[in-house]
Specification:
CATH class of the largest domain: Alpha Beta
Order of helices and strands: EEEHEEHEHHHEHEHEEHEEEHEH
GO molecular function, one term: ATP hydrolysis activity
InterPro entries: AAA+_ATPase, ABC_transporter-like_ATP-bd, ABC_transporter-like_CS, ABC_transporter_ATP-binding, P-loop_NTPase
CATH topology of the largest domain: Rossmann fold
Strand content: 25-35%
Distance between the termini: 31 Å
EC number: 3.6.3.-
Shape: elongated
Helix content: 25-40%
Organism: Croceibacterium atlanticum
Number of domains: 2
Oligomer: single chain
Protein name: Daunorubicin/doxorubicin resistance ATP-binding protein DrrA
Length: 315
């Protein structure tokens, strides 16, 4: 793997009073990827972002961005990083375009009217450019946050719960914008409560809980390794017990013997294959069935399972 654009090693943060927000986090982000960081409230997601963006002073560990030590070269590196924070924070009496221009200038970038217009148009804000921010809806204010973060053309962009509290249509618009940013070469780290966002957008997924990284892997690899298949087979004739031919399968009888239910593949990714083998066995043994329904675990189910099982062991 090429050198990561962001390399975090042993990062820790303990606040006054003894609350540990980060406990030895190791995380490497690849250039040009979309990385989704999942975790419940209080897991450490926002603290991690704050540490990289200079808003939180770590207790220990190192952060290297673009191959340089953030602690030593923070001023120069910060201009290459963008942040869309979770909380709305504006001068509510400022206009949209003036607020976005100010953000660009704050990072030392020369005025560029064409680029500001491009950013505002991409977020459907151009028609609102002269409106005061206080006049906008919550969803439009969140778009302004993204515009401000993009104004200085960051190479690494953090999106902290960017679609929290917005409607489904606006969420889809933002996903399209994120995809366009990736096409420009921007590396994106996304924290979200919406598992569907990770499934839709991310190349890799990390799960954090209680300040510890529980898992980091390719999204598809997580689905394959930890996914679970459930197959429900409606039998033509009810069974009183499982025949010996089915003893090697993870199956149970339900609905008073009218349904044969397979649950497996957890940790192997072979659920579909085992379901096919089960069906072949039923046909070979002359066991008639009337229907077959299958379902795969969603990333949300995997996420919940990780928090319940690995989270406790990591505490």
């Amino acid at each position: 793997m090429a050198d990561p654009i962001l390399d975090i090693r042993g990062l820790s943060k303990t606040y006054k009073g003894g609350v540990t927000a980060l406990a030895g986090v190791d995380l490497q982000i690849r250039k040009g990827e979309i990385f989704a960081l999942l975790g419940p409230n209080g897991a450490g997601k926002t603290t991690l972002i704050g540490a990289v963006c200079g808003l939180v002073r770590p207790t220990g560990g190192t952060i290297h961005a673009f191959g340089e030590d953030m602690a030593k070269h923070w001023r120069g590196l910060r201009g290459r990083i963008g942040l869309v924070p979770q909380e709305l924070g504006f001068d509510m009496f400022d206009t949209v375009i003036r607020s976005v221009r100010y953000s660009r200038g704050m990072f030392g970038c020369a005025p560029d009217a064409a680029r500001i217009e491009e950013v505002l148009r991409s977020l459907s804000l151009w028609d609102k450019r002269d409106a005061k921010i206080r006049e906008l809806s919550g969803g439009m204010k969140r778009r302004v946050l993204i515009a401000k973060a993009l104004a200085h053309d960051p190479e690494l962009l953090f999106l902290d719960e960017p679609t929290a509290g917005v409607d489904v249509e606006l969420r889809r618009d933002m996903w399209q914008q994120i995809d366009a940013l990736r096409a420009r070469g921007t590396t994106i780290i996304l924290t979200t409560h919406y598992i569907e966002e990770a499934e839709e957008m991310a190349d890799r997924v990390g799960v954090i809980n209680k300040g510890r990284i529980l898992l980091v892997d390719e999204k598809d690899a997580i689905m394959a390794q930890l996914g679970r298949t459930e197959a429900r087979i409606a039998l033509t004739n009810p069974m009183a017990s499982l025949p010996p031919a089915l003893s090697g399968y993870s199956v149970t009888l339900e609905d008073e013997g009218r349904s044969l239910v397979y649950r497996g593949g957890d940790g192997t990714g072979k659920g579909k294959q085992e379901t096919a083998e089960l069906v072949k066995t039923l046909v070979r043994e002359g066991i008639d069935f009337e229907g077959l329904e299958t379902a795969e675990s969603s990333l949300e189910e995997i996420f919940v399972n990780l928090l319940e099982h690995r989270g406790e062991s990591a505490a």
